[in-house]
């Protein structure tokens, strides 16, 4: 029994063991270890290679897209291949006595994470963090993430249309300035990987969309929809965001919300998900 610091109770500390929880991958999901760290913001100069040499990344590919997840060198991936088959039916052939399996479907692959020394605080914290980020990436490429946004206010409207002035985002602008003399990416393999990804998005530059918002200002607000995010408006006051990258979805939703945060007196504003706000009493003059 361990006494708590405030002295109110004494109980044993319980660990969540998030890092050791297994992950299950569908046959259509593929994981690839990349020998370089993920490019979080290519518009900024990257740290020296000797500082990031211990950080690699995992490319998670699936039917709905690709997500890059950082991976530290002390985090290990342990695979457990499934040998059984589910949903199989055996059929006896009349020509010979052999059995034939029909409708075979492989079981999802099992993946667990481990660290070199779980007693070290940084490794123990990174263990659970990496597992949580990887779980979100696997769920995103297999099933996708969805964020619903609702707008409350007189005259608040949202619409999605084609962007008449498509612009490069910060990733594309940074890589467009690459040259032999100065490179924002230190590793050649890393630079070529992201250049190939950017070149694919440039082919669809004319198909970019923008989100048009009317939030009580004297002018409409236009936000370009980021790559990898699907934006729809089933109703004029509702926005539905879908995508494989949960972090990118949350960031775009936060950018929409900060244009008109919920206010506590009339309850107007942009609400993300199941967000609610407690109303205050009206101010008395």
Automatic annotation (TrEMBL):
Gene Ontology CC terms, in alphabetical order: mitochondrial large ribosomal subunit
GO molecular function: rRNA binding; structural constituent of ribosome
Domain Large ribosomal subunit protein uL6 alpha-beta, first and last residues per copy: 209-270
Region (Disordered) residue spans: 86-109
Ranges annotated as spanning the membrane: none
A Gene Ontology biological process term: translation
InterPro entries recorded: Ribosomal_uL6-like, Ribosomal_uL6-like_a/b-dom_sf, Ribosomal_uL6_a/b-dom, Ribosomal_uL6_CS
Keywords, sorted A to Z: Ribonucleoprotein, Ribosomal protein
SUPFAM superfamilies: Ribosomal protein L6
Highest taxon listed in the record's lineage: Eukaryota
Gene3D superfamilies in the record: Ribosomal protein L6, alpha-beta domain
Family: Belongs to the universal ribosomal protein uL6 family.
Protein name: Ribosomal protein L6
Protein source organism: Meira miltonrushii
């Amino acid at each position: 029994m361990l006494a708590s610091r405030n002295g109110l109770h004494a109980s044993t500390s319980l660990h969540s063991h998030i890092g050791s929880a297994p992950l299950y991958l569908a046959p259509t999901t593929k994981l690839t270890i990349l020998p370089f760290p993920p490019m979080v913001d290519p518009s900024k100069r990257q740290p020296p290679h000797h500082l990031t040499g211990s950080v690699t990344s995992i490319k998670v590919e699936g039917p709905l897209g690709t997500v890059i997840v950082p991976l530290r060198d002390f985090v290990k991936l342990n695979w457990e291949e499934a040998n059984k088959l589910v949903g199989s039916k055996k059929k006896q052939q009349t020509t010979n006595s052999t059995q034939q399996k029909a409708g075979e479907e492989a079981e999802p692959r099992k993946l667990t994470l481990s660290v070199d020394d779980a007693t070290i605080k940084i490794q123990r914290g990174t263990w659970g963090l990496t597992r949580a980020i990887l779980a979100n990436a696997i769920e995103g490429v297999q099933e996708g993430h969805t964020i619903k946004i609702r707008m409350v206010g007189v005259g608040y409207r949202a619409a999605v249309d084609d962007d008449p002035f498509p612009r490069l985002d910060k990733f594309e602008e940074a890589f467009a300035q690459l040259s032999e003399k100065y490179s924002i990416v230190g590793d050649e393999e890393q630079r070529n990987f992201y250049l190939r990804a950017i070149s694919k998005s440039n082919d669809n530059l004319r198909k970019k969309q923008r989100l048009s918002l009317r939030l009580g200002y004297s002018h409409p607000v236009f936000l370009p929809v980021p790559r990898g995010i699907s934006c729809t408006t089933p109703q004029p006051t509702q926005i539905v965001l879908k995508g494989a990258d949960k972090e990118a979805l949350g960031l775009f939703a936060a950018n929409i919300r900060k244009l008109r945060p919920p206010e506590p007196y009339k309850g107007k504003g942009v609400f993300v998900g199941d967000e609610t706000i407690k109303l205050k009493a009206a101010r008395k003059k």
